[in-house]
Design brief:
By secondary structure, the protein is an alpha/beta fold. It has helices at residues 28-37, 59-74, 86-94, and strands spanning 4-10, 14-23, 46-50, 54-57, 78-82. It has a single domain, classed as Transcription Regulator spoIIAA (2-Layer Sandwich), CATH 3.30.750.24. It starts with a strand and ends in a 24-residue tail after the last helix.
Length: 118
């Protein structure tokens, strides 16, 4: 999967950034660029980074997310992460930054439903 980012402005001053693919050494600068671009038109109240379509993140990718968090904080905007896969969630947890991003819960894999009891 080739990396891409979709960004949209939502009601209430929310900017949603949706990366698609892997966030790593090669693509991490694009995350920082998307956060910087969120401030181009006006100051958003919230930046929501939807990681539901991210298949992999490494330490450089996590660093880019943390850098984006600090960029937003300096400008008085909150940055949160939403919908991480189990793998991405574990990477954020092991790195000690889950709480920084609003403590997102990992999304359930498609078809992951509880087993019937009895």
């Amino acid at each position: 999967m080739e990396f891409s980012i979709t960004t949209r402005r939502l009601p209430g001053g929310v900017v949603e950034i949706v990366p698609h693919g892997e966030i790593d050494l090669e693509t991490a600068p694009e995350i920082r660029g998307a956060v910087d671009a969120a401030f181009a038109a006006d100051e958003p109240a919230l930046i929501r980074v939807d990681l539901s379509d991210v298949t992999f993140v490494d330490s450089v990718g996590i660093s880019a997310l943390v850098g984006g968090y600090h960029t937003a904080a300096i400008r008085g905007t909150r940055l949160v992460v939403a919908e991480p896969s189990e793998f991405v969630y574990k990477q954020l947890f092991i790195s000690g930054v889950v709480g920084l991003f609003g403590s997102p819960r990992p999304r359930k894999p498609i078809g992951d439903s509880p087993e019937p009891v009895g």
